[in-house]
Input
Amino acid sequence: MTVDMFKDKFGPWALVAGGAQGIGETFSRHVAAQGVNVIAIDIDQDALDKIGHDLPKDYGVECLPLNVDLGADDMLDTVVAAVAEREVGLLIYNAAIASVGPFFRKDAGLDLEKARISVNVSGPLLLTYHFARPMLARRSGGIILMSSGAGLKGSPYYSAYSATKAYEITLCEALWYEFKPYNVDVLAVAAGMTLSTAAPAFQHLDTSEFQTTEDCVNEAMAALGQQPLIIAGTKHRAERAELAALPDQQAIAASADHAIGNFFGGVAPEQELD
Output
């Protein structure tokens, strides 16, 4: 797709939730390089200040940085008021609350899980519901929801996170079909281990085969309009294919073993019930 075609289909503005850090920042830079203006939503003001400066300087586009908590009750009203009359042709939702551990643990609770649902489930639903409607009316646009390999199958020790990521995948798969007659492309991206802002949590692992944010975004943008779901990363795709060939019980157990080996020293964590 040429730059002019990209701008016609997905411009003049892209809204990137979680768009000032990690994979989201790379998405913001990718669309800016195609001449599309960027609305970058994030909660890190320093990152917002930087991307608000860099995108106009580096790519000659406009950038509207918005410091918004995507889990707030008034999130949609705040975003809609700030976006105002700007025409959003591409929505990318990259934000999430992620954690690893047993379902019951002392450093978590229902408040965290409700916040996770607000950011990981309600956030993409609300923004899609609002910004997809004018795309359908214009017969042009695109939506990308960043999910995770954890959402492809129940993933022990990522249990609630896994469930929220499954929501994004199934929503995209359904809307891919519903919106296709309106020339609006929908894609879920099941990311694997990626060298993004979450990378410090993986410092004890061999990150040599982790996917870069640039490779992840390039794969996603190439798949947009071609398919409803992409499992990002060559190694990640191979791993998911191996799991998919197993009976459900074995695949779930293998996912548990992966978490136990990488994050709990090879010992399954106990549910913290006190």
About this structure: The mean pLDDT is 94. The longest strand covers residues 141-148.
